[in-house]
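Hey forum,

I'm writing up a methods section and want to include a predicted complex as supplementary material. The small molecule is pyridoxal-5'-phosphate. I've pasted the protein sequence and the SMILES. Can someone with a working setup run it? I'll credit the forum in the acknowledgements.
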Amino acid sequence: MSKINVTRSSMPDFEEYCNEIRELWDSRWLTNMGVKHKQLQADLEQYLGVDKTVLYTNGHLALEHLLAALQLPVGGEVITTPFTFVSTTHAIVRNGLTPVFCDVNEVDYTIDASKIEALITDKTCAIVPVHVYGNLCDVEAIDRIAKKHGLPVVYDAAHAFGVKKNGAGVATFGTASMFSFHATKVYNTIEGGAVCTADAALADKLEKFKNFGITGQETCEYIGGNAKMSEFQAAMGLCNLRHLDGEIAKRRHAVELYRQRLGGVDGIRLCAEQDGVAHNYAYFPVVFDGFKRTRDEIFAKLGENGIVARKYFYPLTSSFECYQNLPTAAPDKTPVAKYIADRVLTLPLYADLSDEDVNRICDIILE
Ligand SMILES: *Cc1c(COP(=O)(O)O)cnc(C)c1O
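Reply by user p_vandermeer:
Happy to help. C-alpha cells for the complex are below, copy them as they are.
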C-alpha cells in the first residue's frame, strides 16, 4: 500500500533545471536581482496580467514588507480573517498592528463582506482578506467598502496564483496582493513569493525594502530587511511556469473525479464553483457536517491507510497560544469560521495524483 501525501511539489525535469542554472556558473551572479530574477519578474507580470511584480524569498516576508511599506499607524486596526494560515495574522501583528477578526461566509469560507463595515472604527487602517483555497473573495463588495472608508486592501493571495475572474487576474484587485511560491503551493520557486500591484511607487519602495532599504551606492532611505529571491529560486520559477497550465489541468482532472465521487453525498459539503472564475484547483476542502463519521474520525481512518489529509485551517489563527493575550482574538466572535474549522479536511491534491488514488481515498471515506 503506497503512502499518499497531502501534496507533492511540481518540478521540471532535472535536465531542464540544469540548463536553466548553467549560466549562473559562468557569471557567478547568484542573487541580487540577476538575469533569472529579471526574467521571472517580466514573465510573471505577463502571466498574471499585472503592472508590477516584486519578487521575494518567501510569501510571508512579502506580506510583512507590504504592510510595512503602506506605513499604517502603529496600533491601527486591520480587519482580516482568522480562517487562514498563521502567516497572515503574524504579518499584521509583527507590524505593530491589531488584527480585528471578521467572520467568513458559509459558501466559500472567504471573509464575509457583509460583516466588515460593522467592525470599522476610527482606528481601522486596512483590510487584509484571504482568497482561501484559491476561492476568490467578494472583491467588488470589499472594493466598495474600502473606497467608501478610504482604506487600502491587501489581499493574501497565497492560495490563488493563476486564478482569474471574467478574464481579470486575481492580483488586479485591491491595493496590492501577495503570492506565495512555497514548495507546497500550486506554483513554486522552492521557497518564494511576490507582491503584485498597479502602484508603481509602492512597488519601487518594496524593491528597496527587500534589499535593506538601500536606495543607491551611498544612500539608504528606508529601514528595510533582507528578503530577496535568489537566482536559483527564480530559475526554478522559470521552469515551473512553462509547465503550470498543464499542472493545473491535471489538478482539475483530479478535482472533477473527487466531485463525482463525493458530490451529493449526505453530510459532505464541497465548495461550489464560483461564477465566472477560472480556478487553480489549489486545494480540495471537504466539510463533514452531519456525515456518519466526524472529520477527526475520517482524518484518523485515512491516516491508518497511509493517506495524509490536512485539517486546514484548524485551529483558527485567533485561537493560537501566541494570541491568547490579544483582546481581539475571540474565536467565539467568528462562529462560522469556528464551525468550518472544526469540520474541514483538505484531501490530497497534486498534479500527479492518479485516478486510482482518488478512488482509494473516496472509497475509504464512503466506506
Ligand atoms: C503559504 C501561505 C503564506 C506564507 O507563504 P510562505 O511563502 O510560506 O512564506 C501566507 N498565507 C497563506 C494563506 C498561505 O497559505
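Some notes you might quote in the supplement: The longest helix spans residues 231-262. The mean pLDDT is 97.
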